[in-house]
Design a protein that fits this description.
about 425 residues, about 40% strand, single chain, 5-stranded mixed sheet, 4-stranded antiparallel sheet
Length: about 425
């Protein structure tokens, strides 16, 4: 789910409020797309996303129902309770009081839904955690709900994965210590599944790669080798006859994203299953960017329900034109504003020293500690030839994963690896 929620860099500054004494309130989702935040680094975020439904008899071939579960919503997970209630957890961007918070939609038939907020509180103060993101809900061995989520809780300077437990699946209490918190990269879009006796954890943070960790208790995770296969982001797993199926979405340059799956019997050997579980429909106006972030569960009647993410068909993606703020490709243009592309952000090894140089400048910035948790902007001239324009996006992808946003970087050709770095001017936003 690479969804991510890169917006964490500017919005996951924790805010707190006294937890309500009543259960979370019902709300009505918005019915159209929203506007990007003023300083958004990319065009289509949760404000442009919508959650759609699909049904399958075998868990492999899914058919769209055409139903919109929620607008301005992203990064879903779905479970069925022991009582047979379907619950879909997701990030909601609207109404405004719930912006970038976790919500849950509940249904008995996958057609009629009610919507509630989700609350996560600190155990000692009962204060509410501000802006948790990327929910995944699993059942503990004793039958409680455990919510895994992304947040940036003090004193951590980077987002990581945390968990909270609940008796009812609506009001959660934070568990001690983060589940996964890395010093070298963000851990975003957490998803977790118990395979045999081991819990398997996956998270994004680098396009096309998945952080992978394992745990015997679902709380203390040990990082293992990153899971990297065919530019697939792991999203959600379920138990099936004979093993487990893990759903993900594949993002390749110039191709709309599609939903695929792996099969594993033991969590050690992963086999990419043939075909796609859901391909982007080229004739569908809301799937021009593709389909992504699948969440799947088995319904009480034996069918499989998938919730997946598209972009609202009326949202102005500016297809075929420069995104807002993207640099002009003409040689010699001066100090344009450069935005991030949604795809192709993975850094080529040849540019590693370029990014390392920029990052070193950032971490030695005298005001760095004070700026932690905020967006730091690099502004520089644009002096590359047209064939090197993609370097801006390559640098941006790595810096973004370290909680920074590159507005524009400058390259000059050629050097040892084809490019060399020209120092940029560092400013705060």
């Amino acid at each position: 789910m690479q969804r991510l929620f890169i917006i964490l860099t500017s919005f996951l500054i924790c805010t707190f409020s006294i937890a309500a004494q009543t259960p979370p309130e019902l709300f009505v989702p918005c019915d159209t797309y929203g506007e990007p935040p003023e300083h958004a680094s990319f065009n289509a975020g949760p404000w442009a996303a919508r959650l759609m439904l699909a049904i399958s008899d075998d868990g492999l071939t899914f058919v769209r129902t055409g139903q919109v579960l929620a607008e301005q919503a992203d990064v879903p997970d779905v479970i069925v309770t022991p009582e047979g209630e379907i619950r879909a957890y997701f990030i909601v961007w609207c109404p405004t009081p719930l912006q970038n918070r976790i919500a849950v939609a509940s249904s008995l038939d996958a057609e009629t839904w009610t919507y509630r907020t989700v609350e996560i509180t600190y155990p000692s103060t009962m204060q509410t955690i501000g802006m948790p993101a990327d929910p995944t809900v699993e059942f503990t061995d004793d039958g409680r709900y455990r919510l895994y989520f992304t947040s940036q809780l003090p004193p951590s300077p980077v987002p990581g994965s945390y968990s909270a437990v609940s008796e009812d699946g609506f009001t959660f209490v934070l568990e001690e210590e983060p589940r996964v918190l890395l010093a070298d990269r963000n851990a975003l879009d957490v998803n977790v599944l118990k395979i045999g006796d081991m819990w398997h954890y996956f998270a994004g943070g680098v396009p096309g790669e998945n952080i992978h960790a394992v745990s015997s208790d679902g709380l203390t995770f040990t990082r293992v080798e990153d899971f990297v296969r065919d530019s697939i982001i792991m999203s959600n797993g379920i138990a099936i006859d004979g093993g487990f199926r893990y759903f993900g979405f594949q993002q390749r340059p110039g191709v709309p994203s599609r939903i695929v799956s792996f099969f594993t019997a033991d969590g050690e050997t992963w086999t990419l299953e043939d075909g796609a579980r859901l391909d982007a429909d080229p004739d569908s106006p809301d799937e021009q960017e593709g389909v992504k972030d699948p969440a799947v569960t088995r319904l009480p009647d034996g069918r499989y329900l998938m919730i997946y993410v598209t972009v609202h068909p009326d949202f102005p993606l500016e297809k075929g034109a420069r995104r807002r703020g993207r640099p002009d490709s003409r040689r010699g243009s001066k100090q344009p504003m450069c935005a991030l592309r949604r795809r192709e952000l993975r850094l080529a090894l040849a540019f590693a020293e370029v990014v390392a140089g920029l990052y070193d400048e950032l971490v030695t910035l005298p005001r760095f500690q004070r700026l932690a948790g905020q967006r730091v902007i690099i502004r520089a001239g644009w002096g590359a030839t047209a064939r090197h324009n993609h370097l801006v996006d390559e640098i941006a992808g790595v810096i973004q994963d370290r909680d920074f946003i590159v507005i524009c970087a400058r390259a000059a050709a050629p050097a040892k690896h084809g490019l060399k770095r020209d120092a940029g001017r560092i400013v705060d936003r």
